[in-house]
Every structure is written in structure tokens, then in C-alpha cells.
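Re: the pair you flagged

First of the two:
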Amino acid sequence: MYKIVFVCTGNTCRSPMAEGILSKVLQDAGYDDVHVSSAGIGTLDGYPATPYAVEIAKRHNVDISQHHSTRMNEFLFKQADLILAMAKNHYEHLDDFPDASQKLYRLKAFPQTNSADARHSVEDPLGGTLEEYKVTYQEIEQEIKRALPEIIRRINHRKS
């Protein structure tokens, strides 16, 4: 099973939305053998997704209402085939993990590794308005659609 992990800070906004979006896209495309999850570098386990994240996702037929935060750790990192960080600080936090150069990317720079700069970060909507969450959701969705051919290529490559 191919494993993809999205990473942000608190694992209550950006990464759960990304997890929900990609899970739905892959399921709709018939990829049942892919496990998509999310984690946070600065969270504890068990926090729910924010109400605005749940609401915006629901408007797009993506259900993240049962999501609970998970703290990123070495075990999750090791088990993942692909890790997509939401921002520069998440990428830098994880860059020292073993095999980071083979699996760690910023979502907005994927599949490029070292070319990412500040423009390649998805801003955190935490504490923002419903409209700010909507903009963040749309940005994540757009980036996932842009990255999807390469994600699918990697999934298929793993199968062969």
C-alpha cells in the first residue's frame, strides 16, 4: 500500500483538508490501495479539525468531520512513501529525518525539492474567517490537481 502524509503545524486545518481532498480524488479515480493521512509538527494527538475546515471541506463533498490530529514522528515518516509539507518551516523541521531527500517535498513545489522558496508555502488560516479557509482550501485543491499526475505516476511505479 502506497502511503502519503500531508504535514502542517497543528494538523487541524491545512493538512486535514489536503488529506480529504486527495483521498476523495484518488478514491474517485479507483485507487483503493493508497493510504492518505496527515500529521502536525506542533500538535498533540486527538484535536478535531477546526469547524471552518470541516465546513469548507463539506461544501466540496469532502468529509473531514471525524479527523483527529496526529503528531508527526519518526515512525510515520519512515512508513510514508511521500510526504508533502504545507510550508517551509514544516519542510525544514522534517528535512533531517532519514531518507528525507527521497520522500519529502513542499506541496506547492512538488516534485521539485531544493527550488522551493517562501512562495511555495500554503498560509495557515487558523484564526481566520470562513472566507480565508475557503481561499486556503482552493489553493490546496489546485496544488493537488497540479501534482496529481506525478503522484499517480509514483503510485503506479510502486505497483510495478
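Second of the two:
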Amino acid sequence: MTGTALREARTNAGMSQVEAAERLGVSQTLLSLMEKGERSVTAAVAQRAVAQFEVSPVELPVSAQARHNDNQLAEDLGALGYPAYSYLESALRNPAEVLLDALDRSDLDARLVEALPWLPLQYSNMNWEWLTEQAKLRNRQNRLGFVVALARKAAMRQVKHETVKHLAEPLDLLEEARLAKSDTLCQESWPLSQRQFAHKHRSRLAAHWNLDTRLTEEHLVELAA
């Protein structure tokens, strides 16, 4: 989170620096320095700002080291508002971090795989520069490209013009970095017969991104929520 974003969140909430500093657990002097960019906004302050001032989770710090299991990823999605897991609770994570964490998994529960396009659909202004770079470092750009493309198709169907616009640029960048190597969408342990079946029945979009997956828009029930 930048100091500018922190200041805008505070003013939008109608709070003085004194009031906000008390809510955030820091001194007014430190808050002032953070807002001016003279001190970095700490992860703890960013977390409290998201909770106290209704700041978008896209402003939270990101870490490429995060590694969560299926259960924790479900809780992460629930905390971010994904309807199917809304009953689960967890500390908020940046949606870009959650998406990278999931896409970098060799294997992922099918219900979580189906949830992934919801993240770019819901948080289309996430940190795409960081996410794209991290995906490319892991050779996961085809997975990310497919997920973003599915989200963009869903946004077009729902007439969400701003979302479509936000997703266009990262999709173009991922298109340029598309790999020729065949992959799955987080289902590397599939037996050969299952992968061959998915390959045979995959959509044109999945084939374009060289992914053996049967995931299509029709499977994304929660995207309409």
C-alpha cells in the first residue's frame, strides 16, 4: 500500500490523522510520514487500513513466498468474498498473491480451480505487473492467461466494461509470453487417460493456452454471483 492510497482511504472515511492513527495503532507522526511517503506503510498498518477504512485488498502487500494448502486457499477465497466459501474466515491476502499461490500448485482441488477466474473478475485492478512477472518466472503464464481470458469473457457477458478494459492489457502481455509446452490447470497428477480425455474435449480457449482442462465458462457458476 502506498502512502497516497492510505491518505485517500483515511480522507474518504472522513477521519483526521489523529483519529486514524488511533484506529491503526500508530502515532499521528508516523502516520503522517507514511502518508507523505517518507516511511513505508507496514504490512500491519495495511491490514488494519483494509479492515478499518474499507480499502480494497489489492492494496495489501504481496509476497512470492506464500504457500498455502487447499484448505487455506479456500479460506483465502472466502475472506475475499467468493460466494461458495463465504462461510470461511481468514486474514485477508492480496488477491494477486492468492492467485499466484494457487496457479503455482502442481495439484489443486477441482472446486478451487473453478474459483480462480473469479479473482480477476472481482479484482480486475490487481497488481498485474507483479503477478505477470512472477507467473513468467515460474512458467505459469499459460495458466494465468487462460484464467484471465475466462474472466474477461465472463465480464463481457455480464457487460462489465471497466473490468473488460482492466483485463485487456495483462492478457495482451501474457499472450506475448505464451508457452508452446502443454500443461494442465493445476492437475499434474492426473493419469494419462484422464489427461488425454481432457485434451480431446478441451475448449478452443484451453487449446489456445495449451492447457489440458475441460474448464469453460459454463462451469463458472459462482462468477454470476
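Residues 3-55 form a domain with the 434 Repressor (Amino-terminal Domain) fold (CATH 1.10.260.40).

-B.
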